Amino acid sequence: MTILRWLTRIGYLLATLVLLFLLASGPVYKLGWVGLGIIFQILKLAVPAGLLAIVLLLIGRLSKAAGNRAVLVIVVLAALLYLPVNQALIARSVPHIHDISTDVTDPPRFSVAMVAARKDARNPPEYAGAETAELQHQAYPDIQTLRVATPAAGVFDLARELVDQRGWDIVQADPANGIIEASATSWWFGFVDDIIIRIVPNGEQTMIDMRSKSRIGSSDIGANARRIRDFLQQLQQQL
Predict the structure, then answer these.
(1) Both 7 and 51 in a single domain?
(2) Considering the entire predicted model, what is its pTM?
């Protein structure tokens, strides 16, 4: 057997191992079989291993040592590797924070019900503090209180509807105090972020503040800021 065929076989083996890990990582974590730290450590090895597999299979295909199946494996592997590679690039471009609020001076406070729901969370329910506020201001200066002319009751009803549309799990919806609390769960790893929306009348305007905080992890890779930005933009467009 030629060296090129051996390299192709190694490429197939690496590709199989990487594909199995990438496809199983989310389910095994959600089932509690493997801790997040182990998942991340293996992922650090899986990405370069996957890239090496792609290179070996490309060499095999170009040298005719591998057939058309190699092209399919390369395409599938590249598609699956895109997510962790993209997430790693995003993580380098955003601050290492996990608690985002439109109002960092008086951030919305989680209720007793939400605190109870977060009882197993690694990150405490209290706002992360001044350092986080400064990092947020530098990275996401657009995340600010939304002021609209619509009465608070109408804002509350629409906000509740948008929360339902996103499939977030509502912990409480209190129209009397203008508070909506909910949790958003990521589809693959099942990471949970908790959200509170505060709707307060202020003269002829209504002030809308929103806070989103991850239960685990020191960095949210920008997820909480994106969630707040997208939600408030849609809310404003529909008012």
Answers:
(1) yes
(2) 0.85
* Domain closes at, from 67, 93, 119: 93
Contact assessment for residue 135 and residue 97, using Cβ atoms and an 8 Å cutoff = yes
**3-state secondary structure string, the chain?**
CCHHHHHHHHHHHHHHHHHHHHHHHHHHHHCCCCCHHHHHHHHHHHHHHHHHHHHHHHHHHHCCCCCCHHHHHHHHHHHHHHHHHHHHHHHHHCCCCCEEECCCCCCCCCCHHHHHHCCCCCCCCCCCCHHHHHHHHHHCCCCCCEEECCCHHHHHHHHHHHHHHCCCEEEEEECCCCEEEEEEECCCCCCEEEEEEEEEEECCEEEEEEEEEECCCCCCCCHHHHHHHHHHHHHHHHC
Distance of CA 38 to the CA centre of its chain: 19
Spatial distance between the Cα atoms of 197 and 215, rounded to a whole number of angstroms:
17
Q: Are 85 and 108 in the same domain?
A: no
Parallel, antiparallel, or unpaired: how do β-strands 205-214 and 146-148 relate?
antiparallel
- Retrieve residue 111's tokens: 């209720």
Distance from chain centroid for Cα 14: 28
Q: What is the pLDDT, as a whole number, of residue 1?
A: 54
Answer yes or no: do 129 and 167 share one domain.
yes
Paired tokens of 150: 């619509």
Distance CA 188, CA 169 (A): 17
**What pLDDT sits at residue 127?**
95
Q: What is the pLDDT of residues 46-94, one digit of tens each?
A: 899 999 999 999 988 888 777 788 889 999 999 989 888 888 888 888 9
